[in-house]
Amino acid sequence: MLEQLEELKLKALRELAGVDNNEELESWRVRYLGKKSELTNSLRSLATLPLEERKIAGGRANELKAELESALSAAKTGLAARLEEKSKGTEQLDITLPGRPWPIGRLHPITQTIHEICQIFVAMGFQVVEGPEVEWDYYNFEALNIPAEHPARDNMSTFWVDYRNEAGQRPMLLRTHTTSVSARMVEALKPPIRVISAGKVYRYEASDATHVPMFHQIDGLVVDSRITMADLKGTLYEFARRFFGEERKVRFRCDYFPFVEPGVEMAIECAVCAGQGCRLCGNSGWIEILGAGMTHPRVLERGGIDPKVYTSFAFGIGIDRLPMLRYGIDDVRLFYGSDLRFLRQF
Predict the structure, then answer these.
(1) Fewer CB within 10 Å of terminal CB in the chain, N or C?
(2) What angle do CA 156, 160, 161 make, to 5 degrees?
């Protein structure tokens, strides 16, 4: 057995000395140190030897394995050095090759939509304004003709801020609509007023194909003398024509909002089913994109504007649904995921 091990050693080292590439080196390792190598087979045959010979042969076999592993490590180091030395002078850097392309960032589709809508209304003479996302109860509800006992508050499940005033009330919240900015503009500006405000709004509600707890709105407000419902419809028709194209159908229906009287809702024909009915439009063929109406006189009075002299209209647009309608997207949650395959399409 000892003679066989010595012969195996000489044979393995002789072959290792002739290795000159990584493929041959790996083949040598498998042949002499692998699970089915000659050394492994020799170790398995030790069971047939007498006890004393088994101890001696087993010790020598383990020593031989350590010697071969050490020789393999040295051969790897030497081979790497020889290959590196050989490659010197043969590899050249081609400075004419193009560099690695880096992905170019772009605006989120919702941000692109906000910019486009703002450009449309700016072209019609509107001014873009902003307001706080953490809002006072007064501007979010009270100033908009929604007192504490008003049932409309039940339709706006609210994220209240953990802050209490001296009376123990919680007067701060995450705004439920950008109409709160319109309430501030009625108070801060003097007629004529023509403004739009865009931003995030928050509703404590479950997510589905058309609803998420945080979404985006654009609100518009016009205050001047002799403003009528015809001005409101003309403005919104022009917006729909510029954003969706002249072929898309538009529908107005009466609706109720506490801060306008009368109120209407405007819907666009569903782009996914072309008005036939689908999951996105709730099988109605239409998707509501905005609420509007003539501003309630009490809202103007709270802002210090005489409703007997000035009239006003207001509208609020759900931004997230607009690219859904334009591109036929059936789930708003795709906009808030991190799937770059979807976002890179815009």
Answers:
(1) C
(2) 155
- Share of residues in the chain with pLDDT > 90 (%): 38
**What phi and psi, each to the nearest 5 degrees, are found at residue 75?**
-65, -40
pLDDT at 104 over 90: no
Is 23 strand, coil or helix? Answer: helix
Three-state DSSP class for 150? Answer: coil
* Cα–Cα dist 310/300, whole Å: 9
* Greatest Cα pair distance in the chain: 118
Structure tokens at 83: 């290959």
Please name the residue that has the structure tokens 């953990």: 162
Measured CA to CA, the distance from residue 225 to residue 211 in angstroms comes to 37
Domain with 31 in it: 2-87
Structure tokens at 85: 């030395």
Mean pLDDT calculated for residue range 255-267 = 91
How far is Cα 94 from Cα 126, in angstroms, rounded to an integer?
Answer: 56
Residue 97 placed within a domain: no
Do 194 and 322 belong together in one domain?
yes
Mean pLDDT, to the nearest integer, of 93-119? 87
Rounded CA-CA distance 209/333 in Å is: 7
Contact assessment for residue 177 and residue 290, using Cβ atoms and an 8 Å cutoff: no
**Does residue 227 sit within a domain?**
yes
Are the C-beta atoms of 259 and 146 separated by less than 8 Å? Answer: yes
Burial of 155 (C-beta count, 10 Å sphere; 0-12/13-18/19+): exposed
> What's the mean pLDDT when you consider all of the chain?
84
Report the domain count for the chain: 2
Q: How far apart are CA 47 and CA 25, in angstroms?
A: 31
Length of the chain: 346
- Whole-angstrom Cα distance, residue 157 to residue 10? 83
